[in-house]
UniProtKB/TrEMBL annotation, chain A:
Any one annotated GO CC term: plasma membrane
Topology term for the membrane: Multi-pass membrane protein
Stretches that traverse the bilayer: 259-286, 307-337, 357-379, 400-422, 434-464, 485-508, 718-740, 761-787, 807-828
Organism listed in the record: Glycomyces albidus
Residues spanning the signal sequence: none
Keywords: Cell membrane, Membrane, Transmembrane, Transmembrane helix
Cellular compartment(s): Cell membrane
Protein name, per record: FtsX-like permease family protein
Pfam families: FtsX, MacB_PCD
Similarity field: Belongs to the ABC-4 integral membrane protein family.
A molecular function (GO) term: transmembrane transporter activity
């Protein structure tokens, strides 16, 4: 029986190759995802391990130093006397303290250096070399000297010999002379695109530890055990081996690769999911073609389970071969992606290819999916009655009732899961509930596609029916709703996913635009790019802007995001020099009380936030600031809920307690009749000495806010490309089967005068209709999906719903192109059909 | 009674609708070569109903396919009316079949997606032309199909389907209708209906029909029966009766093939 199976497979090479391709693609992406993650982890670990070469032990504060900011509280530091103690431990050859943190350095354009501003600042000491390699110049010897990384040179436009201005949140600006440039070991400019600047230890401490003689960590060389060191110092400090510390450090860096890995795993799983339909379809086709052969096998005595076995064996062979090929290609893709991630996001990190055991999951997925998908067609095949061998194969269309009811039920289950997942009813399982709900809903909708195909195909076909062969193609497309539907499903799922995402992005843009246009009464906005820290500017600058003759009003915003508490709960606080004016510019309104002349102990809060905390007008609430001050503030105003003004507002006199007592944003209302561009230029001049912020007009502001989403949207289109490849294979499969099944019909048509061109057109129209059907359905489902998510996020601020018309048009056009491409081979086959053979009776 | 010589081709005075002159057709090559037609010359008179008969493998279907431009000849020429079809390319042949020839096959004669009426109008639709409505109405009436026009083929009996196929074959008023075993799949009653219609279309409409059949009863409806054996014409009966046809066929079984070694 196996022999017969294998021989049979050899005679259907083309179809098997096409089917395998779907499995190959799915396995490839899953494997690549695993390999990317493992490779990046290994590579990053390798680099970090390099940095820790020769470091035998690391002493850090017992408390997690991850919270270390420019204003690091001294509790998170290792004092200088501990360093002295460590140096004195037996077996310690050398020990150095590390001071590092975020520093703002101003580039030659007057703005902060670095894409991910601010820059990493640290103290250059004996241990700095090894991992860091001086390329030019020398190490800093005086407090007014710095050495900078090669990436810093690239990003800042400054070079050796130039003067750079730097400051931190706790230290004022100072000028430094660049006396050297360093690179990282392996001739790299940076680890992950970051910019670095190194000072003398004393200067680094002035900037980063508020001048205290303290360190973020102590690096120890020598063969003293960690226990020996720990015994010598207090239990407030943790002692790790160099290896342990290096692993811990690597974890943070590998996170970027992990995210990429998840994205590709997602793509891979979608590809696998879509492949399932293709495999089911292909095996249904193979079984249909083999109906006589299978019936003959049954007639000469093969048992039903032997027939099932025969079909499943075929699936297993395809699954194994395709998965192995997919795994192989996945290794190549994973390696390529790792190189790409390394060069674009990791500053040219040397890639150490790693094929983890988890990559074998891709094999299991590929083989498992293929065999499982073949079960239904296999069981159907076994039901072929032996007499079918003697009869003409006829496949009467089956009623669609059962499949439709099942589809409705499954869609409902998926829909409920989606809604539950989105409405936080599943708690921590929300995301997985949502995702599995989407998956289940797709299965359900796929089951519904046959019933939907009738009206939709008729409608789409009506457009195509301008020629008679087009009309025949349309009729053929509607002929076997199940097959048309399952073929279109592959495209449907992918288009639904990308449309869903495009819809969300469009809705977000619409929301932003709406907010800006209808709620923001300002013409110009002063703010910085959100980086690792909150960009601010000097209060004096704000005053200068307010004083400009053509400025009618300025709304300003101070914020406290670290460590403030309202009634014992961590809560961000806001303040404005003139809350009344600011609220006016944000179109905020007062529900109860008054904000005019907010008293020093006054507090304004929006309705729902007040409700959440059970606070009412006139209540007194304890507010603790980051500097430790606690004030009893009285709620003097309740604001109407509005996205731009929601939150807790304190009086301007409280600003001095903020971590950063500087304004973050200013919203400028230009006087009636004044030229906005001219005012923008004036503000730009004032901001010349403010490295962290820029002034933009409303249109640029919206573009800035939504620009990153466009990049996201663009990268998601990869998914579409992947699905298109699989969809093309599916459509080719179906069309080839149609041509085979309708050989006699085609023969008849050709005999009574249909030209080859007409035959080609007929097949092409069928193909385009199938693809358009998939795309239209996918767009509809995607919009539904996007709408559901938008509704769920309405409370979170996604208030507008918008359709991505540009993308919808692109997807429809893509569907037509897919249809045209997929039809090429089958149409040629139909056109070349030998009329005589086609109409021969036996 | 066995014939001493192969019959000479009948040269009729009436205009001939289809003419084959010295047609040869072989399949395969070398040892496996089968010569299906050996130097066949025959004319089919316009407005006549001719049956082609012969045992299995005699070449009767091949002859019909060559005459209808579905198959090519190795040697010799075929004319439809005055038009030589030998050597025409696929496009020209397709157009010729569309405009000048009607087909009736044994089965798979109709497109399942189209209604009976759409099937009848199929050749005109393919050509992008408008069929003559009066003529179509007349055929439909003659074939008693007016109640069935909106039905799909699957909703029609075998006899009805074949009548629809007859209507389609005649719809463009072709120069000649080729019928390949048109009653092969039908019961006796439906067969008789179809054959009576073919007869009537010759008598009333002056249609030319060439029918391949192995049923002597069907052949008896024809004006003339041409017998093929081993790729050659071995008999030519005019005004045949079923009995005469049976007698002739019986003759083949005992007779030594004539000129069987002709090159």
């Amino acid at each position: 029986m196996l022999r017969a199976t294998l021989k049979g497979m050899a005679s259907r090479k083309a179809r098997l190759v096409l089917t395998s391709l779907a499995v190959v693609l799915g396995t490839m992406f899953v494997a690549a995802a695993m390999i990317l993650t493992a490779t990046m982890e290994k590579s990053v670990t390798g680099v970090i391990a390099d940095a820790f070469t020769g470091i035998d032990a690391v002493v850090t504060p017992a408390e997690d130093p991850a919270a270390a900011q420019g204003n690091t509280p001294s509790a998170n530091l290792v004092p200088g006397d501990v360093l002295e103690t460590v140096r004195g431990v037996d077996g310690v050859d050398a020990a150095d303290g590390d001071v590092s943190g975020q520093v703002n350095a101003i580039g030659d354009d007057g703005k902060l250096v670095g894409t991910f501003a601010p820059t990493i600042g640290f103290n250059w000491n004996a241990q700095s070399t090894g991992f860091n390699v001086i390329r030019e110049g020398r190490a800093p010897e005086a407090d007014g000297e710095v050495i900078v990384s090669a990436q810093f040179v690239t990003d800042s436009g400054l070079d050796i010999g130039d003067t750079v201005t730097a400051y931190s949140y706790s230290a004022e600006r100072a000028d430094y002379e660049i006396v050297g440039v360093f690179g990282l070991s392996g001739d790299r400019d940076s680890l992950a695109g970051e910019t670095q600047i190194a000072f003398t230890t004393a200067e680094a401490q002035r900037l980063l530890t508020q001048g205290e003689d303290a360190y973020m960590a102590i690096y120890v060389q020598g063969d003293a055990s960690t226990e020996d060191i720990a015994d010598a110092i207090s239990a407030d400090y943790r002692v790790q081996t160099g290896e342990e510390a290096s692993e811990e450090a690597a974890q943070g860096f590998a996170a970027v690769a992990d995210i990429m890995g998840y994205i590709f795993l997602g793509f891979g799983l979608v590809a696998v999911f879509v492949s399932v339909f293709l495999i089911i379809n292909t095996f249904t086709i193979i079984v249909a073609q083999r109906q006589r052969e299978l019936a003959l096998l049954r007639a000469i005595g093969a048992a039903r389970n032997q027939v099932v076995g025969s079909v499943l064996a075929e699936a297993a062979v395809i699954g194994v071969i395709a998965s192995i090929v997919g795994l192989g290609l996945g290794v190549v893709l994973g390696w390529g992606l790792s190189e790409l991630v390394s060069s674009t996001a990791m500053g040219g990190l040397p890639v150490q290819l790693q094929v983890p055991a988890t990559a074998l999951w891709a094999l299991a997925v590929g083989i498992g999916v293929t065999v499982l998908s073949a079960i239904v067609p296999a069981v159907k095949a076994s039901g072929v009655p032996p007499v079918a061998a003697m009869r003409e194969a006829v496949n009467p269309p089956k009623p669609l009732r059962g499949i439709t009811i099942a589809g409705l039920a499954v869609t409902a289950v998926g829909g409920v899961l989606v809604v539950l997942g989105l409405t936080d009813n599943l708690g921590d399982l929300g995301l997985s509930g949502f995702l599995s709900g989407v998956g289940i809903a797709f299965v359900g909708i796929t089951l519904l596609t046959p019933i939907l195909s009738r009206p939709l195909v008729a409608l789409l076909g009506a457009v195509m029916s301008w020629s008679f062969s087009g009309r025949l193609g349309r009729l053929n497309a509607g002929r076997n709703p199940r097959r048309t539907a399952i073929t279109a499903s592959a495209l449907m799922i992918a288009v639904a996913l990308v449309t869903g995402i495009a819809t969300l992005v469009a809705s977000f843009k619409e929301t932003t635009t709406d907010l800006t246009d209808s709620n923001l009464e300002s013409d110009l906005i002063v703010m910085g790019q959100q980086g690792a820290n909150i960009p601010t500017f000097a209060p004096e600058t704000l005053a200068e802007i307010k004083a400009l003759p053509d400025v009618a009003a300025v709304g300003d915003l101070y914020g406290e995001f670290f460590g403030a508490e309202v009634d014992g709960e961590p809560t961000p606080l806001y303040a404005s020099e003139d809350l009344e004016t600011s609220l006016g510019i944000f179109s905020g309104t007062v529900a109860e009380g008054s904000i005019a002349d907010l008293p020093d102990d006054g507090l304004a809060v929006n309705e729902s936030a007040a409700e959440d905390r059970g606070v009412a007008l006139g209540d007194t609430v304890p507010v603790t600031f980051a500097d430790g001050t606690t004030e009893q503030l009285e709620v003097t105003a309740i604001l109407d809920d509005s996205q731009l003004t929601d939150g807790w507002w304190v009086a301007p006199t409280q600003i001095e307690h903020f971590t950063i007592p500087k304004p973050m944003q200013a919203y400028i209302q230009v006087a009636d009749g004044a030229d906005i561009d001219a005012v923008q230029e004036e503000v730009e001049t004032i901001l010349a000495d403010e490295p962290e912020v820029d002034v933009t007009n409303n249109a640029d502001f919206i573009a800035q806010q939504t620009g990153q989403l466009d990049i996201l949207l663009g990268s998601v289109q990869v998914l579409l490309a992947l699905a298109i490849i699989i969809a093309i294979i599916g459509v080719i499969n179906t069309l080839v089967l149609s041509v085979l099944e309708r050989t006699r019909e085609l023969g008849l048509l050709r005999a009574i005068g249909m030209t080859r061109g007409q035959a080609r057109r007929m097949i092409t129209v069928e193909s385009v209709i199938i693809c358009l059907f998939g795309a239209v359905l996918g767009i509809a489902v995607g919009i539904g999906l996007g709408w559901t998510v938008q509704q769920a996020l309405e409370e979170e601020g996604l208030t507008s719903f918008a359709l991505p018309w540009d993308y919808i048009v692109i997807y429809l056009a893509a569907a037509v192109v897919v249809g045209l491409l997929a039809a090429i081979a089958p149409a040629a086959r139909a056109a070349k059909l030998n009329v005589l053979n086609a109409i021969a009776y036996e | 009674m066995p014939l001493a010589n192969p019959p000479a081709p009948q040269i009729t005075r009436t205009r001939s609708a289809v003419t084959a002159s010295n047609v040869w057709r072989a399949y395969g090559s070398g040892e496996a070569q089968v010569v299906a037609l050996r130097d066949v010359s025959v004319q089919f008179a316009s407005g006549a109903f001719t049956a082609i008969m012969g045992p299995s493998g005699s070449g009767k279907s091949t002859l019909m396919h060559c005459l209808a431009g579905l198959d090519t000849t190795d040697r010799g020429t075929v004319h439809i009316g005055e038009t030589p079809i030998t050597g025409l390319n696929d496009k020209a042949l397709t157009k010729l079949r569309r405009d000048k020839i009607g087909f009736i096959f044994q089965q798979f004669n109709l497109l399942p997606t189209l209604t009976a009426e759409e099937n009848i109008l199929l050749p005109a639709s393919i050509a992008g032309a408008k069929a003559d409505p009066e003529w179509i109405a007349r055929i439909i009436a003659t074939l008693d199909l007016s109640q069935r026009l909106t039905h799909k083929p699957t909703e029609l009996s075998g006899g009805q389907q074949q009548r629809v196929a007859c209507a389609r074959a005649l719809a463009t008023r072709p120069e000649v209708v080729f019928a390949d075993e048109p009653t092969g799949n039908l019961d006796t009653r439906s067969s008789a209906e179809v054959l009576r219609f073919l007869r009537k279309s010759v008598d009333d409409f002056g249609q030319t029909i060439v029918m391949v059949t192995h049923d002597p009863g069907a052949a008896a409806y024809a004006d003339r029966v041409v017998f093929l054996a081993d790729g050659q014409i071995v008999e030519d009966l005019h005004r045949p009766t079923a009995d005469a046809v049976i007698d002739t066929m019986r003759g083949f079984e005992t007779r030594v093939p004539l000129a069987g070694e002709a090159r």
